[in-house]
Amino acid sequence: MAGSRTLVLSSLSQTAGAVDKKRVTRALSGEDIAFEEIVAHYQPQVTQLVYRLLGWREDEVEDVVQEVFMAVFINLDKFRGQSRISTWLTRITINKCRSWQRKRLLKMNLIQKLISFGSSSNKPRYNPGANLWENEAAAQIRRVVQSLPPRLREVVVLRYLEELSITEVAEILDLTVNAVHVRLNRARKQIKNELSGIIENE
């Protein structure tokens, strides 16, 4: 049964890969509709990943998603089809999120020099959405993951929320499998300082 399921998933993946390659070829030949198809197909996946990598900051997601697909449009001719387009898109998304976080840090440092954050009413307010992870345990996980350094948050998001394999995480982040395990272990230790038993050991 498991072997049969694996064959089906492999066949579906190959079919999806062939469709993506055709879309890229059509887009490079000047068919605007082909690029629109790529965006329509992958925008939900990219949006979810950006949302998680930025620490559930909803007000920033749309701008970063736009930057991601702008980079895809500009660099489409660099896609060689050696990996799935979803893997390529994930790499671009992570790089854009890293850049955005650096810009945000610089901006916040400047703001902190100009104004005082002495009262809670002056602090930035973020509204991740009333329907997001409504139960308290999930909300606690979200807060702890949000507080992780970006390099640790990336592996947690990709492994546990995007449910990628260790090998896929390593490929996307250009790390060794061992490095991914090291980062996951560090992230789990940091999380377990506040939450015991939420993330199980592999």
Write up this protein.
Helix content is 71%, strand content 0%. The chain has 2 domains: 20-116 and 125-132, Rna Polymerase Sigma Factor, Chain: A, CATH 1.10.1740.10; 135-202, Orthogonal Bundle (Arc Repressor Mutant, subunit A). Helix 1 packs across helix 2 (32-53), helix 2 (32-53) packs antiparallel against helix 3 and helix 4 (85-114) packs across helix 7 (166-173). It is an all-alpha fold and 202 residues long. The chain contains 8 helices and no strands. The model is unreliable at 4-13, 113-134 and 198-202 (pLDDT under 50). The protein has helices at 2-28, 32-53, 58-74, 85-114, 136-147, 150-161, 166-173, 177-192.
Secondary structure layout:
Layout: H1 2-28, H2 32-53, H3 58-74, H4 85-114, H5 136-147, H6 150-161, H7 166-173, H8 177-192
Helix pairs in contact: 1-2, 2-3, 2-4, 3-4, 4-7, 6-8, 7-8
**What's the name of the CATH homologous superfamily of the largest domain?**
RNA polymerase sigma factor, region 2, helix turn helix motif
Unreliable stretches covering 5 or more consecutive residues: 4-13, 113-134, 198-202
> What name is given to the CATH topology of the largest domain?
Rna Polymerase Sigma Factor, Chain: A
Label the structural class. Answer: mainly alpha
| Sheet with the most strands, sense and barrel status | none
Count of DSSP strands: 0
Strand content: under 5%
Descriptors for this entry?
single chain; 202 residues; mainly alpha; Rna Polymerase Sigma Factor, Chain: A; Arc Repressor Mutant, subunit A; 2 domains; 8 helices; disordered C terminus
